[in-house]
Every structure is written in C-alpha cells, then in structure tokens.
Amino acid sequence: DWELGLRGAAEGGDEDIVDFFISKGAKNWYNGLNSASKGGHINLVKFFFYKETEEIGKYSYSSFIRVNEPMYHASMGGHMDVVKFLISKGASDWEQGKFYANLGKHQNLVDFFHSKQKINI
C-alpha cells in the first residue's frame, strides 16, 4: 500500500522514497507529517505541513491543520527543532508535549514545555 510506504519513508527520512510513493499516488499528508515528526526529519515535516495546509485550503476557507499530535510524536523522540517548528504553526498543548517528552526521557524538552506553561499561566 502506497500510503503505508509513504509513512515508513517519512519516518525514516528518505526523501527520494517519499517522492517515489507520492509519484505512485500516496497523498495522506497528515500521516506523513506525523511520521516525519516522529523521526525528527525537519525538511519532511515542513514539506508535509505545507502539503496538508494546501490540501485543506482547497476545501475550506481555513488553512487550519492539527499540529498538536505531530508535536507529541516529535516530543517523544526528542526532536526540539521539529517541536519548535510545530509550535510556530500553532501547536500549544504544553501539558501533553511535556508528558510525551518525559515518556521519551528527554529532559531538555520537559524543561522547555515547563517554561512554556509558566509563560502562559
């Protein structure tokens, strides 16, 4: 299945294989975004984010995209650059971000989310 292959390639960070699966018809950008976030591949995270935003824009006046779930994946993997990118795009569930960072044993991210919570109280 092309969609499953796309997710695996996104998590593994292989841009050529991602392109291959897209050329075969895979286009679940949100699953790609989650997988790339889990793997910590910032270039693919940005690619899938903008593809998903573009797709949503075709069907609605809003370019809203769910970014908290990908942030959880990035937090659990300890990928600070991905977390910061997703926050810049609207992710804001600091408590769950901290939970997943703690689950992944990434103290720097736990501290980061804790500082975000203090600012927003």
TrEMBL record:
Instruction: Tell me the Gene3D superfamilies matching this sequence.
Output: Ankyrin repeat-containing domain (1.25.40.20)
Q: Which Pfam families match?
A: Ank_2
User: Mind telling me which InterPro entries this protein's record contains?
Assistant: Ankyrin_rpt (IPR002110), Ankyrin_rpt-contain_sf (IPR036770)
For this entry, the protein name equals Uncharacterized protein
Organism name: marine sediment metagenome
